[in-house]
Write a structure and sequence with these properties.
Residues 41-205 form the AB hydrolase-1 domain. The protein is α/β, with parallel strands linked by helices. It has one domain: Alpha/Beta hydrolase fold, catalytic domain (Rossmann fold, 3-Layer(aba) Sandwich), CATH 3.40.50.1820. The protein contains 9 helices and 6 strands. The protein is globular, with a radius of gyration of 17 Å. Strand 3 (62-67), helix 2 (69-80) and strand 4 (84-89) form a beta-alpha-beta unit.
């Protein structure tokens, strides 16, 4: 794949999510959504999976923008694309930042016992965890959770809990101050979003768009029409 002629955003959604979470972004540059691939096996590692996902990423300078679990894949892909810069949205910069509750889940092996459809069964818990505020946000969140492949979810949760983040590249962090699912706590955040929860890619899309356009050094007029996602 040849190097792009301008700044390109490769957008990676969160666990089980798809391009719907990016529909409110207004990016004044080319944007491509990397769609999830089915795991080849239950034991497929994150580096192996990232190598397959990286096939859709150009070899030249670009932006890898990952949301939640997508941020972890962005960091893994960046190992293979040294000219890429990573932006993490509502995500983790290293395995050390995994919340204490999830560390206990890993130690006790509870992720093998809990059904991956748990949030489908408890939609109001999902609403609280993701801070989906309006009816439209809650409706979108329920659709995404409903459409999540349980096989992929179980694989992704296991990979998240056993992620080896040693040697991942540096990243720019955008994180909400009220993220209940993956709170930043003491992690350094470059762009804190006041009041933003884990679903802020939707609820605070305007602020995030502004930051991404600023990072890319875009010189287009603010009134320019955003490029469609492909």
């Amino acid at each position: 794949m040849s190097a792009p002629s301008g700044p390109v955003f490769y957008l990676i959604p969160g666990l089980g999510a798809d391009e719907r979470v990016f529909r409110l972004l207004e990016l004044h540059a080319e944007a491509r959504v990397l769609k999830w691939l089915p795991p080849q096996a239950a034991a497929e590692s994150l580096p192996q999976y990232a190598a397959r996902l990286a096939a859709g990423v150009g070899i030249g300078p670009c932006w890898l923008v990952g949301v939640s679990f997508g941020g972890i894949l962005a960091l893994e892909i960046a190992r293979l694309r040294p000219q890429a810069r990573v932006v993490l949205i509502s995500s983790l910069g290293s395995a050390r930042e995994l919340p204490a509750a999830l560390q206990w889940v890993r130690r006790l092996g509870l992720h093998h016992l809990l059904p991956p459809q748990l949030l489908q069964l408890l939609p109001r818990l999902a609403q609280w965890l993701f801070s989906a505020r309006s009816g439209a946000e809650y409706s979108l969140l329920r659709q995404i959770i409903r459409d999540t492949d349980p096989v992929f979810a179980r694989w992704a949760i296991a990979r998240l809990l056993h992620w080896d983040s040693s040697g991942v590249p540096a990243a720019i962090r955008i994180h909400g101050t009220r993220d209940r699912l993956l709170p930043a706590r003491r992690a350094a955040v470059d762009y804190p979003i006041a009041g933003g929860g884990h679903f802020m890619i939707v609820s605070h899309a305007s602020q995030i768009s502004h930051i991404l356009n600023q990072l890319a050094g875009n010189t287009l007029a603010p009134s320019a029409a955003p490029q469609p996602l492909v």
